[in-house]
Amino acid sequence: MVSTPSDPATPTAGPVPVGPLRIGPITVDPPVVLAPMAGVTNLAFRQLCQRFGSGLFVSEMVNARGLLEDGEKTWQLASFGPEETRRSLQLYGTDPAVMGAAVRRLVDQDHVDHIDLNFGCPAPKVTRHGGGAAVPARPALFGAVVAAAVDNAGTVPVTVKMRIGLDDDRVTFLEAGRRAADAGAAAVALHARTARQRYSGRARWSAIAELVEALPGTPVLGNGDIWTAADALAMIERTGCAGVVVGRACLGRPWFFGQLADLFAGRPIRPEPPLGEMAVIAAEHARLLTGAVGEYRAMKMMRKHMGWYLTGYPVGSAVRRSVTSLDTLAELEDLFAPLDPTLVVEPDAAASPRGTQTGPHEVVVPDGWLDADSITPPDALADSMVSGG
User: Fold this and answer.
1) Of 49, 121, 241, 250, which one is the catalytic site residue?
2) Where are the beta strands (DSSP E) in 48-174?
3) In a 10 Å sphere around its CB, with 0-12 CB exposed, 13-18 middle and 19+ buried, how is residue 250 labelled?
4) Count of alpha carbons within 13 Å of 13, Cβ hemisphere only?
């Protein structure tokens, strides 16, 4: 069983120094990583976030098997822009041979500077076939997949992102963390929720602290319930983790990385922008997406982003409904034209959870899956369930 869920508000002995995060040859300063998010952390969004602050900005999750099969969508997800000087890509895979071959291809083509492995996907369609968060529940296989990636990566650092376990009765993070470190992972990130929780409830920061203690020679990154810059510092101070992984807090808030940069540099933290400034940022996001995928697809994608951008601004329900039918850049600009550009975010709105909060859900794995000594991967269906990435 996992220890009692830690409360992020629990006081500790006091602040600790926060230095740069080192992942192999890469120095990340401030120690902040953008969490891979499907349909979000594409080239356009990464570009936008990097304009506000520094960190390590990871791609959407990419399917290792799809790379080897030359899937057009997969390689599009794996693309980087010329301004991305540290090309960070997250891979999903369940077969050591496939993972090793995909990593070797990426390295031989000088396509990446950092590879992250995803073992935290809680989607039922994935775990019931032995993929995602189910892989650490078969520790020998988990270790083999990580080792295959590391062995084929050369000098490119490989990191691992995982969850506490399948549920409170099937906890895997400590053994998985040790196996990842033994295999040569340059860092281990823990989303401090179980697969059963998905994105509900509180993240258990106590588990991050346990993993830090268990892996004295490997940087541990914490993920979960970081909604403000102060939350990021609190997590580091209270768990001893070497850095933070930021996900849903930056949805509709790419400037959050500027706030984090301010915090770690000891500067006053910039406020949430007024509506007029937010409108300029959102329009630039739409233009970057249009340049990448064309206006039609970009505006379909921007509909969900606009819901996040407008969170906390008192613009009224009619405006919020209108973003669900945006089709052109001109319509996006027209949306803001009649609104008061001086409107500010309502108190506490920026600190409130955003994005999906689904869960809890029961976790199903294949019959006989909980065999710690087995290195047999699931069939190819487990990989194909994560289409394109």
Assistant:
1) 121
2) 56-63, 88-92, 114-119, 158-163, 165-167, 170-171
3) buried
4) 4
Cα 275 versus chain centre, distance: 27
Alpha-carbon gap, residue 286 to 306, rounded angstroms:
10
Question: Both tokens of residue 262?
Answer: 């301010």
Boundaries of domain holding 106: 24-270
Q: What are the angstrom distances between the C-alpha of 40 and each of 48, 126, 155, 161, 308?
A: 12, 20, 28, 18, 12
Distance CA 188, CA 160 (A): 5
Residue 239: which region, alpha, beta or left (left: phi > 0; alpha: psi -120 to 50)?
alpha
**Same domain? 204 vs 302:** no
* Structural domain includes residue 297: yes
pLDDT tens by residue, 99-154: 999 999 999 999 999 999 999 999 988 899 899 999 999 999 999 999 999 999 99
| Cβ 188 vs Cβ 223: under 8 Å | no
For residues 134 and 256, membership in a common domain is answered with: yes
Q: Say if residue 217 is in the same domain as residue 163.
A: yes
Q: What is the pLDDT of residues 215-248, one digit of tens each?
A: 999 999 999 999 999 999 999 999 999 999 999 9
Using left for φ > 0, alpha for ψ between -120 and 50, and beta otherwise, residue 359 falls in left
121 in active site: yes
151 in any annotated domain: yes
Final residue belonging to a domain, choices 214, 238, 270: 270
**Which of 151, 152, 172 has the alpha carbon at shortest distance from 162?**
172
pTM of the model: 0.93
